[in-house]
Amino acid sequence: MSTVSKAYGDAHPLQRTPWARYRHSLWLLTTRDLKVRYSTSALGYVWSVLDPLVMAGIYWFVFTQVFQRVAGTDPYIVFLLTALLPWMWFNGAVSDSTRAFLKDAKLVRSTMIPRTIWVNRIVLSKGIEFVLALPVLAIFAVVFGATIGWQIVFFPLAVLLQAILTAGVALIVAPLVVFFRDLERAVKLILRFLFYASPIIYGVSNLPEELHVWAAFNPLSGIFGLYRSAFFPGELDWFNVAIAAVMSLALLAIGLLVFRSSVRQVLKEI
User: Fold this and answer.
1) To bridge 121 with a disulfide, which of 29, 39, 108, 170 should be the other Cys (CB 3.0-4.6 Å)?
2) What is the rounded distance in angstroms from the CA atom of residue 139 to the CA atom of residue 129?
3) Is residue 89 a part of any domain in this protein?
4) Among 15-19, 24-28, 104-108, 172-176, whose mean pLDDT is lowest?
């Protein structure tokens, strides 16, 4: 019996609430994805942290050893990782969501599980990879002497807001790519632009004063500020966080609306 079949094939399926069945199916598909991803790789878990580590190493070398850095806060490698790791979650989930339906078209058509699961499993699996990479951040924080403040209590809030934002964007992108295949490449270009438009290699505090308000309308600014506040309290801006919360909830609502209005047509197209 396949993983998808098991999702609704337990001994007492009627005893579960719809929400419980949804969570059960989502978890089964997410763990299946993770197992497949790691079972076909010799390094497995290492790959989930190697990419952000290489990127952080490159930016650290360029801005601390080659050029005189004018952005960020010391220790700069920790400053980078506190935004790069959540960026890899957002970037990976949105990018993979462009293939959410096309990759498993037969299963999507033939199973009766809610179709949002095919998108949310990507968001969840990338989120789990993000959580698994956090010990690496902790190691670098200890090695480079970064001080952890009480603001670390905001870390779960940052995770929650990012999960809402990522799910909302993915729910918009996944069905639209089915109708407009060129959107897959467009999303990658937009993500590349968004990387430099987000406070990753720099902080919002490093921007000119007149750009602070504009930066707030990138919801990642407030979310990354929450993550960074655990080590760099000056990066926390509650105005940015409030804007990020409003925009994340709005994008989730739009995503659900787009998804529900297009899912029937999606099933016909794939």
Assistant:
1) 29
2) 17
3) yes
4) 15-19
CA distance 219 to 161: 9
Decide: 111 and 101 in contact? Cβ < 8 Å.
no
Instruction: Report the C-alpha gap between 63 and 217 in whole angstroms.
Output: 27
- Nearest-CA neighbor of 166 among 70, 234, 252, 99? 252
**Residue 88 confidence (pLDDT) above 60:** yes
User: Is residue 38, in this structure, part of any structural domain at all?
Assistant: no
Tokens 């998804």, residue located = 259
Task: Read off the tokens for 237.
Answer: 């801006």
Range of the domain at 202: 45-269
| Pairwise CA distance, residues 234 & 108, whole Å | 46
Q: For residue 37, tell me if it sits in a domain.
A: no
Q: How many residues does the chain have?
A: 270
Task: Tell me if 183 sits within 8 A of 143, measured CB to CB.
Answer: no
Helix axes 155-179, 183-197, angle to 10 degrees: 150
Q: What is the pTM of this model?
A: 0.86
In whole angstroms, give the CA distance from residue 164 to residue 29: 19
> In the chain, pLDDT over 70 holds for what percent of residues?
90
Give the residue carrying structure tokens 């498993």.
Answer: 104
Take residue 94 and report the two structure tokens written for it. Answer: 């949105």
Q: Report if residue 85 sits inside a domain.
A: yes
In angstroms, the CA 163 to CA 155 distance is: 12
Q: Report in angstroms the alpha-carbon separations of 220 from 75, 225, 236.
A: 21, 8, 12
Residue 12 has pLDDT above 60, yes or no: no
- Give DSSP secondary structure letters for 84-151: HHHHHHHHHHHHHHTTTTTTTHHHHHH--S-TTHHHHHHHHHHHHHHHHHHHHHHHHHHHTTPPP-GG
